[in-house]
Design brief:
Active site: 391
Helix content: 10-25%
Domain Peptidase M14: 119-421
Shape: globular
Keywords: Carboxypeptidase, Hydrolase, Metalloprotease, Protease, Signal, Zinc
Protein name: M14 family zinc carboxypeptidase
Number of strands: 32
Largest sheet: 8 strands, mixed
Strand content: 25-35%
Organism: Solirubrobacter deserti
Amino acid sequence: MFQRSKLVAGLAAATALFAPGVAHAKTTLVELKETSHAALHHLEALGLDVTYEGEQRTEVMLHGPEDRQILDESGYAYKVLTEDLEGANDHYLEPEEARQQRVERGIAPLSTLPTGRVAYRTLTDINAELQQLATTYPDKVKLFTLSEPSLLGKPIYGVEVSHDVANAGAKPSFLLSGVHHAREWPTAEFTLEFVWDLLLNDKPGDDANALLSKGKLIAVPVVNPDGYELSRSLQNEQKRKNCRITAGATPTLADCTAAANVNRGVDNNRNYIPFWGGPGSSSNATASNHRGSAPASEPENRGMIDLLNKSNVTVAINNHTPDQRLLRAPSSSNEPEVVADEVVYEELLQRLAKNLPGWPAGPWTDVYYEASSTAEQQAYYAYGAFGFTPEATPGFSAPQTFHPPYQNVIDNYLGTGTRYAGQTMRGLYYDAFEAATEAKLHSVLTGTAPAGTKLTLSKSTLLDSSSLVWETGQPAQVRAFPNAIAQTITVGASGKFEWHINPSLRASQYDAAHLDEAYDLVCAAPDGTVLERTTLKIARGQMANRSLCTAGGVGGTVPATLSLTLKGAAAFPPFVPGVAQEYDASTHADVISTAGDATLSVGDADPVNTGKLVNGAFALAQPLRAAASSPAAGAGAAPVPVGASTPLLTWSGPVSNDPVTVAFKQAIGAGDPLRTGTYSKTLTFTLSTTNP
């Protein structure tokens, strides 16, 4: 047993807890006798933090006086179990950490985990361990950070794990993530232990060796590092969300730890794009399931979405605690009850559920509460990846609910002990990784191309929110948000490639059907020169073979062409005087360009009221803003005021009949004067190039 101490030496010298700040969170635990499904849904809808659902009682954590007032006004009777939960777990955390320090000095036995750990890691431990993995296994582990840091500026680390990891971009990927919710400490432990598990068991003939040969693991142990550090350091042990205090404003650590803000933040598992704003999420900033101010308003979510957009993830597991479930989409009632890949999705769920016998397994809406804009919805509706949420380390209540004594992490990972005998997260991950590599569950593009050429698959899509009221006094509506997938591989010396990808036929958000979509497939020289552009339409389980960028003996001439065809004027709905509101309008155009690059611009020649809609001698107080997007160019910049010549969209190569959507936004302030009649403006659209 002691020989494995080498694995943990130097990983986590900083196991001591951070000294709590001046302000401490106060979390009160209460018990309700209400246990009906309707009552639980009502409590969730009120934004309360339901932490235990039993046959005879329900436990709710109240994070400050606002929560207590909400519960008091709800009419539900309750009794206080623990007035102040903070510090209630010290009796087991401190001995565990002391034992971990003895383990690292080689004077205490290791556990049966791959690393032998006996105590929860801190954020410092986790980040140091990820870096050590990349240093120890440079040919198998690649360290990366998400494209955006956390709200408080912390890097969000992850690793890719595979044989010849530097050249593993074409392999099918399995995504394993933890700590969307800060207090769910076991999820980081499970994720890191599985990384070590694969590497330590990477021997010929073993399952780990086969998986790393044909697939790639992408692991992000801590999606929400700000919240995790506050929870793990016991400054706010029961914190669930990130540190967002006010929409659009970047807080400081002092803001996040202030007693007045203890119950504020955004739930990172309610902030993805599809179905944002729907049931099981709240607009109340103090609610435990607060969704944020807009889809992907939080940098942690934007970083995860960017990772998915650039990675061919075919199966994803988003770890949570503690409710003894294995969940899949649909997670909310406004999704299709039967999804487009229902049979395959359900078969995979049941296959994985065999690792967790006795745990309810199914769609959230069947075996759990409702939740909108979850990680599963992003994985499935944006990419066609099969997403799952295991709710692990169940069976605890009160302060231990989300992170029980560490022995339970050991037992639930391995499926050992009395409580979790046969219930193995390790087995779940191995089976999910195996499923991710199976071609029948995704799509495969094979073929030939000159060595060194770069192949890029891209697709720009729109993901719909839930139907909700965006502006006070206006009817509920669904809004579409752009999402741009772009994945690239380099063809090896053999000139042959095998690229495992998600299907281009994307699942509908509204019925059991697939949307008829295709990838844009580009073959480019090492210097970026586009040699060939085509499309690829492919379904799940299909294999396509293409010979790309292959020279032949036939030629032809393409005349220089720049063509812009507008398809009508954009029209705003009637402006309402005295009401602050932003109005939307759009028009469409087709672009043909044979140039090496092209730019679409819009301009207003009016020298007096440039960029403002006019009604005779009257002009709107606020400028007209414009943006544009297309499948080939992707999503352009955010809407900007229209000037004398304002660039909207850029193409990096030739396109034919690329459908462009030009979106306009007009803000009207509550005090802006409006004149009876029609406000309008004639604008000039220009398609130009610097590389004809």
